[in-house]
Amino acid sequence: MRRKIVAGNWKMNGNRQFAKKLVEDLSSVAGELKDSVEIVIAPPFILMADAVQNKTSDLKLASQNVSNFDNGAFTGETSADMLAEFGCQYSIIGHSERRALFGDLDGVVANKVAKSLEKGISPILCVGETLEERDAEKTLDVIRGQLDIALKDLNEQQLKQVVVAYEPVWAIGTGKTATPEQAQSVHAFIRNEVAVKSQLIANAMPIIYGGSVKARNAKELFAMADIDGGLIGGASLKFEEFSEICKAIG
Ligand code: PEP
User: Fold this and answer.
1) In this structure, which of 25, 75, 98, 137 has its CB flanked by the most CB atoms within 10 Å?
2) Active-site annotation, residues
């Protein structure tokens, strides 16, 4: 059976007290559910130390971004090396907010994937189409293009470490979720694209869905054959809601 992952992307929210409490509470849920799902949190960089100090090893840590440079005169950046030192196991790369607002275009995304893999951090590679692209029936072309550029230089050892998150841009933070069938068809497409490189790796790769996942719709999304969990934004800031989403797996 494939590894299931539910990751909470806190974005630019929270403070030290919030982080301590949520991380303590989620650590016990992560312990209870560890045989069925890996629970991951992605706090803002500045709250990572609080997260690390207050979580157990059952709760995994992700960054929301990583630098495409190693070290040096890059003001405001955080390197994969620094993240690895904090025990970061995952890095969200190519989130649509980063692509749209901070110039993380496909080439930059590919560099960030490579940098995180160099330090043993699994990229959670986000791909997804805008509403205009969906309406123009370009969804699969867009996804193929994003995957091709991000994954093209990876060898099999590296590809094995990758998690893909399908996040239709029109579903992020909007309350509009893709239907389970819409999401499933893109997830199956992503798996087939990876299978062109390696069927074995494609079969084992967690492909998670993101876009207005809530406790009320998680179960039907996670029931689909190629949906292996979720990348959760707004709902990951509420302990009860996020725990319910995690419990909706399996
Ligand atoms: C996200 O930011 O990755 C996300 C899926 O956000 P939301 O769950 O709020 O739509």
Assistant:
1) 98
2) 95, 167
